[in-house]
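chain below, 278 aa
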Amino acid sequence: MQQALLSWSARTRRDLPWRRTRDPWAILVSELMLQQTQVPRVVPKYHAFLELFPSASVCASASVADVVRAWHSLGYNRRAVHLHRAAVAVVDSHGGELPDDLDALVALPGVGAYTARAILAFAFGRDVGIVESNTARVLARVAGRPLSRKEAQVFADDLVPPGKGWAWNQAMIDLGATVCLRRAPTCATCPVADHCKWHGGPDPAAPAHKQSPFAGSDRQGRGRLVDAMRTGSVSFDRIPEAAGWPDDPARAHRIAATLVADGLAIELDGALALPRLT
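prediction:
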């Protein structure tokens, strides 16, 4: 399986900008941007963001508001706040350089087990497996059964060929993103079909539940408020309109309170505004 997948990847690997660097900061930026956001939307924002914030030190010296503005159109704005907090922690605790230790990486704000392992594999070349939506689907189907998070991580680590952590994980991601799709996987062209225990029966990688629709959700209202604040503060009486719920002010102000709690907004002089202080 290792030889088959690596040979396939050598011929078909997608040319993505974060695959042309081993800079840990650039890898962290790409990984946070790619969480729940598709690659075509991330590519231009990735370039633009790194032009503004080419290092953790530059990002840490900027205001949270500047980082959130640069995050515009990517959604899930909390990720921008986490990235800024991580940059501050890297400067304060690691001299401005991301650590190459799993525990130290996981301790950074917004950096979970997957992101920490992605940095270790893609920036430092470590032989660790990464488990995200695409690779988790591949792992479950190859195993032929649903895997717990712990089981998937152990399986992922065991599969990494020695000295091939970077190439192997890129191959696994591409396999899940282009061949082993959630819907209508192209098994006939899969390079590891001979090693896969799933053959069209009940899908062991099927999600246990579907995400609720975005339209009309609290997430949509939060996004609208953040977009409104990018151009200036929003007075309290304008919050329902800015959130898209002029007839439901209680819901709008509840959502505004969650933005404050998450560090995405501050209350200032009777208005809601993006944070100004680092």
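Residues 78-94 form the longest helix (17 residues). Strands lie at 234-235, 266-268, 271-273.
thats it, cya
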